Description:
Blueprint lengths: L19 H19 L4 H24 L5 H16 L7 H17 L10
Amino acid sequence: MGFDIPEPFCWDESFQVFYATIDEQHKGLFRGIFEVAAHPGDAHKLTHLIDVVKAHFKTEEEMMHHAKFDGYAEHKKIHDDFVTKLKGLATPVGNDSVHFAKDWLVNHIKGIDFKYKGKLQ
Length: 121
């Protein structure tokens, strides 16, 4: 999509949005995708990833809504589309789907989430 996928696939300070809760949740998203990549046949890992993604999106959307962030509706739609994509996956998760999730997360944080830096509470 645009930004390079880090290898090994893990969060680093280049992904920091400077909201402690969101940064911690982003770290969890990296771990979740990493675990699915390492164990593509483990349905529990996939379910866990979907759960942490949904929980993170809920937190982030609540913060954006509370701050009356201008891009809220568009951002929420992007989240909803990603959750739909993840829910459509089945184990074993293919390499193309893992690559998509990695690429999506990296580019979403750096290309979309960075737009709210300094604008939330």
